[in-house]
Design brief:
alpha+beta; 12-stranded antiparallel sheet; 6-stranded mixed sheet
């Protein structure tokens, strides 16, 4: 199960209105009908007459709860029918100081999401946080135990100030709740408070900015100022000021019918433990997160006609979005219309420009009724697609796509580095607008996919043969992966001279497949259980076809589910990629500094070029000790986990020696390095090579290789890998060759890593440590390899080598002695 992050990135603009008015809001939505509670009985004491509390001077805003402002106090008038009714309380930052959170927290970032009930206890109204993670039908005896063992916290308690005139509602003063530093809805979590040394909330500089009530939701804007010794910006002020938006929305009285998750198809999920299950344990049920789409004409839908949904998914653009980008953003959103057609819907997802003030004076990106593509003025290079969902059913209620202003610079740079050799359009810092727009469109489409419920699918690019990427007809039709949800951004395989190539990603057949799985309406199913057989048949129909395979992003071991790779053979793909990268490196000054007459872009792109080289190498490393995961049910033939073929692993090791561990001298270009830095040239290469050397020589990989060889001694073994590594890294000893400074650095890194493998104390609680290192073959193999290397170096040191090499060998011998015979 994925970890729930405290902060899910979302983008935001401030709420434009600062006061409450007395006009009733118009909305196409109607309040959900809730079970009516018993009318409360008035009691003497603190509870006052309604007219005494809500005076004739009150400014009232009618909606889900009527909001009354009397002098400087804010009151909620809560209909008793909404007591003990599920609602969602969503907290997000509306305004924040620069650099809060280091660049990945922005206006619109969601900081808390809580399901709540307003409940009466004697003369108080409580906000209780509700949980849906442990359930049992209230008709079952165990329901009492579930409630007792999952007691929910009280977030706040209000005194009842008055009852409405007809006793159908209770009035509470919410001023203190919304003007105090309530941790449950705060924008500054504990780690921010510790990082910025926040001392306290300054009440004199904190206040409620605005409140709005709508038929199904309430929006509150707070201005908070904290005293902080080390704020993220404006350092001398010792102040952090944030503006928070608190959204409270009524959840449907009847939750959407959930749909079961199947790990063979990728979806974001939620899980519940059902203690009322007939299983001999609490039955964990996992459901997918999705929007609720129901056909307007179910009979036409049954006949196979495309039908519009009763309520389509609508995204608004942020008013801050530059005009020149709006076209591409809207196109990126509506690219998904075709995928929804595969599920039987037309016009299921719609993009709209933000309404003008005349069209809708109350429109706000923070209003939870609207899903918005947020445009963030930030130097962060990223885009994200979080969402808010009903924790009872997985129904997505609202989502915001976040686009950071500087993100296109990353895409421009990678476009040049990864495609520039074969793509003349990429050989410039001024990428043509249409191509920049196409990139933006596909990034937005990718983030929309997340907000529809789809996670990354890292197996989708493995579905296509490497040679297909050089075929113009194939790439124009199929793009570079079977889904937009893979991290396959550019076609780095196509070579100079290949014609009519598509270099930029696009949606693919897996997207149609996944959307059909999640969104096709099944009229005959009256429960999630009724759908299970149908869903399984849909999967079985596609089983075995790599186009429809799902590969987890979290995999550390599966070479068919890697991030940023393309093609079904990493050795061939990375060979093509490095061939192109050498051409780019040679031309980089001509495409950058020679045009701008400064070295800023050259320095930035050279640094990123090293990263591209590292990615290509890393894709090959993963095959050594790799395991292909092919998720399937017991009714399907074959095994789930299969080690990579021995011959392929041997080829991968040979490729790594030739392309990663032999010094990549083409990266050490004097005309670049001596124009962007005064030193550190050799260490750049050492860091790159050592990263992959250490990755090969890690406990987890060695443990897998030991397991594979134990199951079948024809599999590639840990000893095979360690011998091949020593043989290649110390090849100079066999020819009495002098060792260059780059290779000396790498060889010392090897000895250091062997010391780590030999002496590192292993924490048995480490989540990825699945074997006992001390009692395994790892350290005996390391000891044997070090003794062998020591004999080789002792012999080689007396050959006709230069002094640098002689000193180096003697130093390595002493280091090995220290490892084998520590003092």
């Amino acid at each position: 199960m994925k970890k729930i992050l405290v902060l899910a990135l979302v983008v935001s603009l401030c709420f434009s209105c600062a006061t409450v008015n007395n006009s009733k809001k118009t909305s196409t939505k109607q309040p959900a009908v809730a079970t009516k509670a018993q009318a409360p009985k008035k009691k003497p004491g603190k509870i006052k007459d309604y007219n005494t509390v809500i005076t004739k001077d009150a400014v009232t805003d009618k909606g889900l709860f009527d909001i009354h402002v009397v002098d400087d106090k804010y009151y909620f008038e809560i209909p008793t029918k909404y007591l003990n009714t599920d609602m969602l309380l969503v907290s997000r930052l509306a305004k924040l100081p620069a650099n809060l959170g280091g660049g990945y927290v922005n206006a619109g970032t969601k900081t808390n999401t809580r399901m709540i009930n307003w409940e009466r206890f004697r003369d108080k109204i409580l906000i209780k946080e509700k949980s849906s993670s442990a359930i049992a039908a209230d008709s079952l005896p165990i329901h009492v135990s579930v409630r007792a063992n999952n007691y929910e916290p009280t977030l706040y308690a209000f005194d009842i100030a008055a009852f409405s005139k007809d006793s159908s509602a209770v009035v509470v003063d919410v001023t203190k709740f919304y003007s105090s530093d309530v941790k449950a809805i705060s924008g500054l979590p504990s780690y921010f408070r510790k990082q910025y040394k926040v001392r306290s909330l300054d009440k004199s500089r904190s206040f409620i900015n605005a409140m709005r009530s709508y038929p199904e939701n309430i929006e509150v804007i707070q201005d908070f100022t904290y005293n902080a010794a080390e704020p993220p910006s404006n350092y001398g002020t010792e102040t952090i000021s944030v503006q928070m938006n608190q959204s409270m929305i009524l959840l449907p009285e009847e939750p959407m019918q959930p749909r079961y998750f199947d790990e063979r198809v990728g979806w974001f999920t939620l899980s519940q433990y059902d203690y009322g299950s007939e299983q001999l344990k609490a039955d964990e049920k996992t459901y997918i997160r999705r929007w609720k789409l129901i056909p307007k004409d179910i009979e036409a839908y049954k006949r196979g006609e495309l039908v519009e949904p009763v309520k389509p998914i609508v995204y608004y653009l942020d008013p801050a979005t530059p005009m020149k980008f709006r076209k591409y953003m809207k196109e990126g959103i509506e690219l998904w219309q075709k995928a929804f057609e595969a599920a039987g819907f037309k016009n299921a997802i719609i993009a709209k420009d933000p309404p003008t003030r005349e069209e809708d004076p109350e429109f706000s990106p923070e209003d939870i009724r609207y899903s918005v593509v947020r445009y963030v003025a930030s130097t962060t290079r990223n885009a994200t697609g979080p969402s808010v969902s009903d924790p009872r059913s997985g129904e997505i209620i609202e989502s915001d796509i976040i686009w950071y202003h500087n993100h296109l610079r990353s895409y421009r740079n990678r476009y040049m580095l990864e495609t520039g050799a074969a793509n003349p359009s990429a050989r410039t810092l001024n990428t043509p607008d249409e191509e920049i727009g196409e990139m933006m469109k596909m990034v937005i489409a990718h983030e929309v996919g997340h907000t529809l419920g789809l996670p990354h699918n890292m197996s989708a690019s493995y579905a296509y043969d490497v040679e297909d990427y050089r075929n113009g007809t194939f790439t124009q039709k199929n793009g570079i992966a079977a889904t937009i949800m893979d991290y396959a951004r550019y076609n780095y395989i196509a070579q100079p001279g290949d014609k009519n190539i598509r270099f930029i990603r696009q949606l693919g057949p897996y997207d149609d497949y996944a959307i059909n799985y999640g969104y096709r309406y099944i009229p005959e199913a009256k429960s999630a259980d009724d759908e299970k057989e149908i869903l399984n048949l849909w999967i079985i129909e596609k089983a075995g076809n790599p186009i429809y395979k799902f590969g987890k992003q979290s995999s550390r071991f599966d070479p068919t589910a890697q991030t940023e790779d393309i093609g079904n053979n990493s050795i061939k793909a990375s060979t093509y990629g490095l061939k192109n990268l050498k051409i780019v490196a040679k031309n980089l000054p001509d495409w950058t500094s020679d045009k701008t007459n400064n070295y800023e872009d050259l320095e930035e792109l050279y640094g990123e070029l090293l990263g591209v080289w590292s990615r290509y190498v890393g894709h090959v490393v993963t095959h050594v000790g790799g395991v292909v995961e092919d998720t399937k049910n017991p009714s399907q033939e074959g095994l789930v986990y299969n080690p990579v073929d021995k011959a392929y692993q041997k080829s991968a090791m040979q490729w790594l020696h030739q392309n990663a561990f032999e010094t990549p001298e083409w990266l050490v270009d004097e005309t670049i390095l001596r124009n962007i830095d005064f030193a550190g040239y050799t260490d750049r290469i050492r860091r790159l090579q050592t990263r992959h050397l250490n990755n090969l020589m890690n406990f987890e990989r060695l443990g897998r290789l030991i397991d594979h060889n134990a199951m079948n001694n024809n599999n590639y073994s840990a000893l095979d890998m360690m011998k091949a590594l020593r043989y290649g890294l110390w090849s100079e000893t066999r020819s009495s060759s002098n060792v260059t400074v780059f290779r000396r650095n790498l060889q010392r890194a090897y000895v250091d890593r062997m010391e780590y493998l030999m002496t590192e104390k292993i924490d048995s609680k480490r989540s990825n440590q699945y074997f006992n290192v001390n009692q395994s073959d790892v350290r005996s193999i390391v000891r044997g390899e070090l003794n062998t290397l020591k004999r080789i170096l002792t012999s080689a040191v007396n050959t006709g080598i230069n002094t640098d090499t002689k000193y180096h060998y003697r130093d390595c011998i002493e280091r090995i002695n220290t490892i084998l015979e520590p003092k």
